[in-house]
Amino acid sequence: MTSFDVLRVFCGPGGGYGNELGVVRDGSVLPDPDDRQAFAAKLGFSETVFVDDPERGVIDIYTPTLRLPFAGHPCVGTAWLLDVPELVTPAGVVGARLDGEFSWIEARAEWAPPRTLRQYGSAAEVDALPVPAPGEWIYAWAWEDESAGRVRARAFPGRDDGIDEDEATGAAALLLTHELGRALNIIQGKGSQILTAPGPEGWIEVGGRVRQAGFSSPSGGTSWGHPQR
User: Fold this and answer.
1) Among this protein's residues, is 47 annotated catalytic?
2) Which of 18, 19, 97, 149 has minimal Cβ neighbours within 10 Å of its Cβ?
3) pLDDT tens-digit profile of 31-80?
């Protein structure tokens, strides 16, 4: 059995919520991309990361159905787990830092997969949205307090792989920050929190809280932390 950590990334202020992430610390146990894809599908998380070099931070990211050159919550969570200053992804080198309770990455909007950013008139409208039929990837958002940069958001991947709604998506927050050109405090899903801040020369920081949710060992033993609330 392949061992893996389970993290919750972009947790709320009380440590609850967050998007679950699987991290295989020793990617050499599954070197073949097809085997990695099958394992990610078996785990069923919105993303699973395979670490190919823990010291240099070289990682490989998969959804249940495809490989990604970059993704936000996998980078934030893996940077926290490995405690490295950067991650190497196919899209580029992602800066990483820890600041108190928050794990931060620095990336570029053009690395993020395409998303449809759809603004609504109020947070209540976003809350009331039904899950759309599979199709385009939609990031539904509305201002909760525009002057303070507070945003209410929900994410609908539009895939037919059992992930109807993403609890927290750093790549979409990256794109929204790029479009609006300002720092944001985003509450997404049931209560996850994502912080962003634009920097010089097109770089954008994305940060949030990370918690260890579980670990599965090669012997078959599994240890789980507090469940998502």
Assistant:
1) yes
2) 97
3) 999 999 999 999 999 999 999 999 999 999 999 999 999 999 999 999 99
> Which is nearest to 90 in space by CA: 105, 75, 73?
75
One of 47, 106, 167, 205 is an active-site residue; which one? 47
Half-sphere exposure (CA, 13 Å, Cβ side) for 141? 28
- Identify the CATH class of 116-207: alpha beta
Q: SS3 of 93, please? A: strand
- Can you give the pTM of this predicted structure? 0.91
Among candidate residues 5, 7, 14, 4, the one with its CA nearest the CA of residue 190: 14
Choices 3.10.310.10, 3.40.1380.10, 3.40.50.300, 3.40.50.1100: CATH for 4-90+211-219 = 3.10.310.10
Distance CA 131, CA 92 (A): 32
